[in-house]
Amino acid sequence: MAVAATSLVTLADLKTFLGVTSGGTDTILEQxxxxxxxxxxxxxxxxFTDARVQEVYDTFGHDRIVLKNPPAEKVYFVGALKQTVLxxxxxxxxxxxxxxxxxxxxxxxxxRTSGGTETITTLSLTTYDTTNELATAINAVAGFRATANxxxxxxxxxxxxxxxxxxxxxxxxxxxxxxxxxxxxxxxxIIYGDSLSGYQSVLVDYTGGYxxxxxxxxxxxxxxxxxxxxxxxxxxxxxxxxxxxxxxxxRAAAEQQQEIRDLLAQYRRIR
Length: 271
Hints:
This protein is of the alpha+beta class.
């Protein structure tokens, strides 16, 4: 096992923090790092490592959007309004079932023939990164036919779930109208401007997060990972022990948790 690419600290960081020099516990330490990183991100309601993401927001009459993963390193597209960009149909009327679904990574074509044989074809939006390429790929799948009504990036497709293709086909919509009258507070991850006002849905395609994780997030993650590592052999029912003239007491869990919360307070996303 290796530390996940989205984890917030390295194995070397945690080993230095714990004073561990051998490699005998590396696998356990890597697991603790991944779990601690997920805990920190879940507590803060956001991810921290930089990544390109597409997020949809409803403005609800406001003139600003607070992005989920600040700071915003680059904003590639702010889109409102959708139109049909890809039409997909089932072409074998004898099929018992045919449907299409898509998410942020792939299109899924599900077909069950009259004889009961089911096939599920996955088309990656990274591999087929325009609707023209997607239409060509769908046309190569037995039982399906597609037409690109407008060529746009595949990542800008709106989602559908289990749309039945046997009766009327599916008209997939995409975000096509790019807003231009807006400003960006990159550090706080806020997009604002009159063009956002009103009641509308908006797609934002941007790179957000940190190329270098801030020290206080690193410290919080190390503290959580170290606690996970040490607690694996701890009897959770014991708060203090004594042997002869020696005794010790463990710090209250609530006190430890508060220190971690204090480190993460400024990064927590209020939902």
